[in-house]
Amino acid sequence: MEFSHKPVLFAETMQSLALSDGGVYVDGTLGGGGHSEGILLATGPSGRVIGIDQDDEALAAAGARLAVFGDRFIACKSNFAEMSDVLAGLQVDGVDGVLLDIGVSSHQLDDAGRGFSYMQDGPLDMRMNQSTGRTAADLLAEASAEELADIIYKYGEERFSRRIAARIVARRAEQPITGTLQLAEIVRSAIPAAQRRHEEQHPAKRTFQALRIAVNDELGVLERGLRAAFASLKPGGRLSVITFHSLEDRIVKEYFVSLARGCDCPPEFPICVCGKVPQARLINRKPVVAGAEELAENPRARSAKLRTIEKL
Question: Rounded CA gap, 266 and 256, in Å?
């Protein structure tokens, strides 16, 4: 299957990074290379991009797309949470900007073999890096009903999580749960019919999201990645992050606010005693979202939020 991914908030992201000629940038979620291409085109003949991704198909596609830029582009197979190690290995002391586009690419969603889609039949994999780690099928086979319910509620914000978990445990006692449509039907059957009639989205959407987040430790990776990305910035460098659901956005917002605030003394203290000073400034108080034109072309941009911070 050909790798294709249309970057969301493309123009807004390019603007948020305040790209400069000859700058060095990290695309921590390389994907198909669309954002990286935009950065390379905007930073003159000496601008450089270090692209990080753990998906072999994304690395191959981006490498082919960006080959025209020669050694101005370097692709690294890794997780963006390991950005510090990647840059140290390349002997890069600091960068002018970092972009993180959090979430699943259009290609990964549309490829039934990856197991992310509840609309197509495929193996319950859901790993971003298919060369390591346990699959969603492994998780469903090994976790207790309580563990599954907690995952589905915490990461999917699914109020019927206990019903779904109980149904999964009952079904797996009869036969292994290994397919996406098999799981989607189990989830659908666990949600009351009245609730299904009043929802526009697929009843399995939240459960699939929760399992994907758990399989890839996405929220833990995001927290570690934000710290690594900010540490890698030169003074004046910018970190731009695109998120696609409230759990991710909350983590980014709270981290950015903490960097911009500095002092973390309790509000009842009359004066600051912690001595912490702001390390960054917020570029936008509120997240940047897609406009009507982009939403018409790409409905998946509807939940995208862009936040940017600049290192002092």
Answer: 18
Residues 35 and 262 sit within 8 Å (Cβ to Cβ): no
CA-closest candidate to residue 282, choices 309, 261, 255? 309
Q: How far apart are CA 230 and CA 80, in angstroms?
A: 12
51 vs 222: CA distance, rounded Å: 17
The structure's pTM equals: 0.92
CA pair distance 141, 27, nearest whole angstrom: 35
Q: What is the pLDDT of residues 51-102, one digit of tens each?
A: 999 999 999 999 999 999 999 999 999 999 999 999 999 999 999 999 999 9
Domains assigned to the chain = 10-107+218-311 (3.40.50.150), 119-216 (1.10.150.170)
* Dist CA 154 CA 158 (whole Å): 8
